[in-house]
Design a protein that fits this description.
CATH class of chain B: Alpha Beta
CATH architecture of chain B: 3-Layer(aba) Sandwich
Number of domains of chain A: 2
Low-confidence stretches of chain A: 154-160
Radius of gyration of chain A: 28 Å
Shape of chain A: elongated
Strand content of chain A: 5-15%
Structural class of chain A: mainly alpha
Order of helices and strands of chain A: HHEHEHEHEHHHHHHHHH
Largest interface: A-B, 23 and 27 residues
Number of domains of chain B: 1
Shape of chain B: globular
Largest sheet of chain A: 4 strands, mixed
CATH topology of chain B: Rossmann fold
Order of helices and strands of chain B: EEEHEEHEHHHEHEHEEHH
CATH superfamily of chain B: P-loop containing nucleotide triphosphate hydrolases
Strand order of the largest sheet of chain A: 2-1-3-4
Distance between the termini of chain A: 24 Å
Oligomer: heterodimer
Helix content of chain B: 25-40%
Mean pLDDT of chain B: 86
Number of helices of chain A: 14
Number of strands of chain A: 4
């Protein structure tokens, strides 16, 4: 046991002596979360728009009020003609323009259809489609409340309720992804590099000649990286809860258990990779190409798995990231309990056990 | 369960600390070590020579329990290589050609690491570390990172580290490669002192003048070990006036 602890201690010294790496390992997760959180946000607030109000009656005023009150739009100009709208797009950089037809109120009361024209700046497709959705939702809401107040006939009652993520907040999507990538970088990549470094430089031979069990050497070297990635994970979770108000509907204990299990899986991948290669460079390349990139693309972090060609959907099952991200979202957002995610835990744990046994057996050939 | 650290006594009835019989290692079709047999006496300085690729490294790895022999047997420090590798590990020290301490650990941390994994109790270890550092006149360097220590001192430090658990046999795999002649001389003084205390020294080297310092030497070629004896005996046998000429004659033959 003493030898085992000594190996762990030694690995920690390696980590702490390499200040730059340590800093990167602890700083990168924070940077990534903040970067994703503040820049790759799909939520748009206070988009500048123009409204050409040809009606200027009480209902058109009510509609404009509703649009402004939503917080998504800021009416910065009231052009007088369609040509002025063009000017606004060019000079005032508005994202969207609405033309309210004349006799808006009359049409609402007397006719079945009212046509509103919406003009979009689609030079940024994402922004345009998001704003479109916002405006549709507001209009829908507006007609509903109009119908209710005026006891008008409502032919179709369309009601959209966004489950679990009512604000369609994209923080929910990338936090699990970032945790996954960070754990793979620290536990799989760093541990496999550290293990293969000792084989490359020959210090592993010194350890294996000594009366220490190989299992102890390997596990002892991996544990510090697991601890490090656990700390990183906790930092990411705290930032996402505090700064981005991500919900925490499930139990914290279960969340941490899930992270520990995934950490074990990532570590087992690292061990297996280092058991297969001879140099640090190989370990790095294989972890990046064989684990990191596939996880980024196939885990559902960047692209939804359901939209992938079938063969890729099958491949996604091999990489632990997919299972971890599903389970993590379930726990944090849906508030799932262990009864709901036990199968994912089992898959991750099973992967870890198989790979640990495989890698130890491979290392055990007396080289 | 780990046994407390102890000075394990070698089986006293044998005068040899290394007994090798027909030891063989095959990698697929290639026979790296081909039925070698030899004995090394306790406290002897045994030189193990051979050209690159002659099978020396494979042989040493087997003797150090890192590699399983394909066939043949050996007793190291009185223990059976096939069955008692754990006891052998406790009784041998090893220092490799490549510098084998951690560059980013301090002198003390390195020695503490290896001392601890050899099961030396904490306080005892501390005493041993400081007394060996004192012997090497490195005691004020114990907090220095190994990285910043000159190569010659690193080699001596690695030797001292390999001796911390008081092994019965030390395997030195090209211990002096790359160091200057003065350090080499100092290193060999260290080897002599150690051997005088009854420790068996098993050393490989490419420096033929060093081979002359050995009690007995053996020369491996193509996996086989055919030449073995004192330097004087070998010189007479091969009709050469130096070990270097013996080596060249034998290997080229």
């Amino acid at each position: 046991m003493k030898e085992f602890l000594q190996i762990i201690k030694k690995e920690f010294i390696h980590i702490f002596r390499d200040r730059l790496t340590l800093f990167l390992v602890l700083a990168i997760p924070i940077l990534l979360v903040l970067l994703f959180g503040f820049t790759i946000s799909t939520d748009i607030h206070h988009a500048d728009i123009s409204v050409l109000d040809l009606a200027e009656d009480s209902q058109s005023k009510a509609l404009i009020d509703k649009i402004t009150a939503s917080g998504y739009f800021e009416v910065i100009s009231y052009p007088m003609s369609e040509s002025e709208i063009d000017e606004d797009f060019k000079n005032k950089n508005i994202k969207l323009a609405i033309i309210i037809p004349s006799h808006f109120e009359e049409q609402l009361t007397n006719e079945k259809f009212v046509t509103l024209q919406i003009i979009n700046d689609v030079s940024d497709l994402n922004v345009a489609s998001i704003l479109n959705n916002y405006i549709k939702a507001i209009l829908h809401d507006f007609t509903l409340s109009y119908n209710k107040i005026n006891e008008a006939d409502v032919p179709i009652d369309l009601s959209i309720h966004m489950m679990y993520n009512p604000e369609a907040n994209c923080v929910y999507m990338f936090v699990p992804g970032i945790i996954t990538m960070i754990m793979i970088i620290i536990t799989a990549l760093m541990a496999s590099i550290s293990l293969s470094r000792e084989m490359e430089t020959g210090t592993m031979r010194m350890l294996l000649i000594a009366p220490v069990k190989k299992v102890h050497v390997v596990i002892g070297k991996v544990i510090p990286y697991m601890i490090l990635s656990f700390i990183s994970t906790i930092i990411i979770i705290i930032i996402s809860l505090v700064v981005f108000h991500m919900p925490m509907n499930g139990s914290i204990g279960l969340l941490l258990l899930l992270c520990v299990v995934f950490m074990l899986t990532a570590a087992s991948f690292g061990m297996t990779i280092s058991a297969l290669v001879n140099t640090q460079l190989d370990a790095m390349m294989i972890t990046m190409m064989g684990l990191f990139l596939p996880t980024a693309f196939l885990s559902g972090f960047l692209f939804p798995i359901d939209n992938m060609p079938y063969i890729f959907q099958l491949m996604a099952n091999i990489f632990p990231g997919k299972w971890f991200i599903i389970a993590l979202k379930d726990v944090m957002i849906k508030g799932s309990g262990i009864g709901d995610i036990w199968s994912y835990l089992l898959i991750l744990f099973g992967m870890a056990m198989v790979l640990i046994v495989v890698s130890l057996r491979r290392l055990d050939r007396r080289r | 369960m780990r046994l407390p650290f102890q000075h394990t006594n070698i089986v006293e009835d044998s005068p040899y600390s290394i007994e090798v019989k027909e030891l063989t290692k095959q990698f697929g079709d290639f026979t790296a070590v081909d039925h070698i047999s030899f004995n090394v006496k306790k406290g002897e300085i045994f030189g193990f020579l051979g050209a690159n690729g002659a099978g020396k490294t494979t042989a040493i790895r087997m003797l150090c329990t890192l590699l399983m022999p394909t066939s043949g047997s050996a007793r190291i420090a009185g223990y059976d290589l096939a069955k008692e590798s754990k006891m052998i590990k406790r009784n041998i020290g090893y220092m490799s050609q490549k510098f084998s301490l951690y560059d980013d650990l301090t002198v003390y941390e390195n020695m503490q690491l290896f001392g601890t994994i050899y099961g030396i109790p904490k306080k005892e270890l501390k005493d041993r570390i400081f007394s060996s550092l004192k012997m090497l006149e490195l005691e004020n360097k114990y907090k220095t990172l190994v990285y910043s220590i000159p190569l010659g001192w690193k080699q001596k430090l690695a030797f001292a580290t390999a001796m911390l658990h008081r092994p019965k046999i030390v395997f030195l795999d090209e211990p002096t490669s790359g160091v200057d002649p003065i350090v080499r001389r100092e290193f060999w003084n260290l080897i002599y002192e150690t051997a005088a205390q009854g420790v068996t020294i098993f050393v490989t080297t490419h420096y033929m003048d060093e081979a002359e310092y050995c009690g007995r030497i053996s020369i491996m070629s193509h996996g086989q070990l055919k030449l073995i004896g004192t330097p004087t005996e070998l010189k007479e046998q091969m009709e050469a006036d130096s070990i270097e000429k013996v080596f060249v004659k034998f290997v080229v033959r």
